[in-house]
Amino acid sequence: MKLLWSFLFLSCLCLGFLGHGYSEKPEVVKIGSIFSFNSVIGKVAKIAIEEAVKDVNSNPDILVGTRLQVSMQNSNCSGFMGMVEALRFMEKDIVGIIGPQCSVVAHMISHMANELRVPLLSFAVTDPVMSPLQFPYFIRTSQSDLYQMEAIASIVDLYGWKEVIAVFVDDDYGRNGVAALNDKLASRRLRITYKAGLHPDNAVNKNEIMNMLIKIMLLQPRIIVIHVYSELGFAVFKEAKYLGMMGNGYVWIATDWLSTTLDSSSPLPSERLESIQGALVLRPHTPDSKLKREFFARWRKNPDAPLALHTYGLYAYDSVMLLARALDKYFKHGGKISFSNDSMLDALGKSGSLNLEAMTVFDGGEALLKDILGTHMVGLTGQLQFTTDRSRIRPAYDIINVAGTGVRQIGYWSNHSGLSVLPPESLTKPNMSASQKLRHVIWPGEAFQKPRGWAFSNNGKELKIGVPRRVSYKEFVSQIRGTEYMFKGFCIDVFTAAVNLLPYAVPVKFIPYGNGKENPSYTHMVEMITSGNFDGVVGDIAIVTNRTKIVDFTQPYAASGLVVVAPFKKLNSGAWAFLRPFNRLMWAVTACCFLFVGIVVWILEHRINDEFRGPPKRQCVTILWFSFSTMFFAHRENTVSTLGRLVLIIWLFVVLIINSSYTASLTSILTVQQLSSPIKGIDSLREMDDRIGYQVGSFAERYLRDELNISESRLVPLGSPEAYAKALKDGPRKGGVAAIVDERPYVELFLSSNCAYRIVGQEFTKSGWGFAFPRDSPLAIDLSTAILELAENGDLQRIHDKWLMKNACTLENAELESDRLHLKSFWGLFLICGVACVLALFLYFLQIIRQLYNGKPSEEEEDAIGRENHDSSSLRSTRLQRFLSLMDEKEDVSKAGSKKRKIDGSVNDNSVSRHSRRLDSFNSVNPLD
Question: At what angle do helices 311-332 and 40-58 cross, to 10 degrees?
Fold first, then answer.
């Protein structure tokens, strides 16, 4: 019995501790919801929230023993009404609010939520400026427009468009969304050229819309992003179709307001559907799942659902589920529902009649907020989890195309994978830029080709095109005498021909630039584009680095580059011109090779060829004669040995190449006029102290001064071809210049009529001439395509020949000195010949040594062997004499004597006499004791 009482006491004690750790759950938890009941989003959200509350209350795993109760209020997207309804909530012990729907309401009541510590879970506010730093109790369960605008910028960048027009509703939602779009476009070097704001009132003003669209028609960009509410958006599309703006050339990109309407009101009325044909639409992406499919099936069976389910209905459902799971976690952590009065509100309430003392602060608001942010769940919209800045992880959008009687999905965008034709959840790695793509699009006007995105404005305004008023080289561009705005020349004809190839009219007005007394500064002229004085510049404008930093150039229509022009003097051929084809080393090596080959052939032929035998004097003459007669293939001696013939064949091939090269070089020296100048190019010109001329207005002055560090005191401005000729003729000693640095097109035109000067050295810069336009100008791109077409069809060359084809001087531009032939051009041939000679000699001597050691020793050798101990050098001397005699004797005689010695040990008379003479010689050198 005592044991039983002890057990009961311990049980009560444990229950007491447990009861102290876990607060008692309330039977009912009240939450609020505020949105616009009559909107497309609100009609669906109302049913979705009710379904979510039912699912929470019927789920045995969530809020066990506690029932969730929701109270809904209609804000009608009015800031004032939203504030009033929120105040009503604060009198009902609300622990959380689902909503609001509109940005203007969110901005109003978020301040109230901060003070009263009531979390706001917004399922539809996409305004990107709702910062958690300013509004810590505001939680966005949908996706921010920051990501939607980044998706639009990706689409614009994908198709290569540069400028867009933004049509938006002029409230927090519209302005902040367009501001985010502008930032995202700017990060890609794109821009919004025009922003058209519309009044946010529900009453659609047709005249306002019409006037706005007419202004847009007069602008150049044809990419229009529309970020409004549904009724206002359809009104814009209706008037745009009436004005023909839903046809070819236009691109309309609508934000998720249109996809929400399409999803909830499918099919649309035919009039509305017809007005949005070809538009691109973004829709928040929700991954496919079994949970989502089951909920869609329930929705279709729900008789109370007035519209089809759309994405924001799914967000509303998940918001309720998230709050319910967070409350469940809150209660499990010991949280309880309690409210307290705010002293400041009490004081204000007692001093007036606003009844502010009725509003209370939720004591557990901060803890519940942490539980909401820390709750991870998989809902109808996929993984619901927040980043550090309280955005949903992996935001993504569907990209759809309105075509025919419905819509086509053409791809996806996510901040993880960019643009893709595959769902973002199926991509594990971020896509590279090369893989960014979408499916085929049917554009407005049922066009299948990607619109250019730009058209010349149809406002009757002419482009102000700056043209240099040149005073020299007027073949390139010149003002027609007696006119103010008319020009002619090579550059003008190219520009006119390119403009005529454009698929649209471009009215232009040429504005002369310069005083007409000297060529203007082209750099200053280009800078006037950035200041807005010119819409473009046409002329002989060089494309150089400092200019490309401030303007865009077209494709170059003429090649250019800086060259050096200098006077020259003629070189006479002279009496010793025949020696000039080869340099000294080449002559020396060639002569040595002739002699070396002659000696090699003599060695190989001496024993078996009578033509290479005889007295020493005769043999020396034979070697020299044979060597140099091979130069003309006139050698009379025949080669008999195989090795000799091989060497001769290789040598004759070498001689053939040398003869041909010598003849060609000598012909060039004697027939082509040779030129000479002390200046060899820009490098030698820099090392000198003489003055250098340049054309007035050219970038050559800046290049010589800044890039090549040539003193400005050495630079002389020259304004005409006549000034060029005079300065070069006078030279630096008479106040002229040593050389002129200018662009090649000018120099070629100058040299066509001044034959006393030539280009020296190589072109030391590479550039071209183009037409200049403001940065990111689509006209520059279209004209570049037109210039390429002119080059391909030959029109560009015909224009060049018309203006710049002049009678050239009789003397062609040549190098200052004829290139001599050097050994490096022939060392391969000499190497082959040398290797062949050495190899032939090696084989020949190997054969001789073999005969020397295999033959029977002579009597002298036998005597020397016997005396080896007495005189060791005798044997070596005897063998050397034997080797030399073997080299000198004829091969057939040597063989015959060897055979007879083997048969009978006797020799013929010639061998005996020759042997006797050798013996006498041997005895005279080595007398016997």
Answer: 40
- pLDDT at site 570: 60
Across 755-770, average pLDDT: 89
- Is residue 130 within 8 A of residue 110, CB to CB? The reply is yes
Rounded to the nearest 5°, which phi and psi values hold at 580? -75, -25
Evaluate the omega torsion of the peptide bond into residue 267 and state whether it is cis, within 30 degrees of 0: yes
The alpha-helical segments, DSSP class H, found in 549-583 are none
**693 has which bridge partners?**
716, 740
Dist. CA 845–CA 837, nearest whole Å: 12
Answer yes or no: are the C-beta atoms of 479 and 541 closer than 8 Å. Answer: no
What pLDDT score was predicted for residue 581?
A: 82
Tens of pLDDT, residues 470-510: 999 999 999 999 898 999 999 999 999 999 998 888 889 99
Measure Cα distances from 530 to 527, 550, 771 in Å: 5, 7, 14
Burial class (CB in 10 A: 0-12, 13-18, 19+), 31: buried
- The residue among 308, 314, 311, 254 whose CA lies nearest residue 284 is 311
CA distance 330 to 335: 5
- Cα separation, 531 vs 524, whole angstroms: 11
DSSP H helices in 355-453: 365-374
Specify the DSSP class assigned to residue 21.
H
Mean pLDDT over 776-788 rounds to 90
> SS in 3 state form for 33-47?
EEECCCCHHHHHHHH
* Angle, CA of 364, 138 and 377, to the nearest 5°: 80
Spatial CA neighbour of 175 closest among 258, 240, 109, 104: 104
DSSP 162-220: -EEEEEEESSHHHHHHHHHHHHHHHTTT-EEEEEEEE--SSS--HHHHHHHHHHHHTSS
Residue 570, both tokens? 């003629």
Measured distance CA(557)–CA(796) in Å, rounded: 8
For tokens 């996706």, name the residue: 143
User: Of 820, 837, 821, 840, which Cα lies nearest the Cα of 592?
Assistant: 837
The predicted model gives 774-787 an average pLDDT of 90
pLDDT score, position 30: 94
Which residues are CB-contacts of 733 (< 8 A; sequence separation ≥ 6)?
none
Residue 560, strand partner residues: 767
Strand, coil or helix: 260: helix
Q: How far is CA 47 from the centre of its chain?
A: 52
pLDDT computed for residue 777 by the predictor: 85
Enumerate residues 6+ apart whose C-beta is below 8 A from 466. Answer: 511, 513, 525, 528, 529, 533, 534, 536, 537, 538, 539
Q: Rounded to the nearest 5°, which phi and psi values hold at 585?
A: -65, -40
On average, the pLDDT of the chain sits at: 84
Beta-bridge partners for 402: 407
Cis-peptide, bond into residue 616, ω within 30° of zero: no
pLDDT tens digits, residue range 166-203? Answer: 999 999 999 999 999 999 999 998 999 999 999 887 56
Is 193 within 8 Å of 159 (Cβ atoms)?
no
Distance between CA 8 and CA 623 in Å, rounded?
137
Rounded to 5 degrees, what are φ and ψ at 285?
A: -85, 130
pLDDT > 90? residue 718: yes
Full-model pTM: 0.67
174: left (phi over 0), alpha (psi -120 to 50) or beta: alpha
CB atoms within 10 A of CB 23: 15
| 463-468/478-479 β-pairing | unpaired
CB contact set of 799 (below 8 Å; sequence gap of 6+): 490, 493, 494, 497, 790
DSSP three-state, residue 581: coil
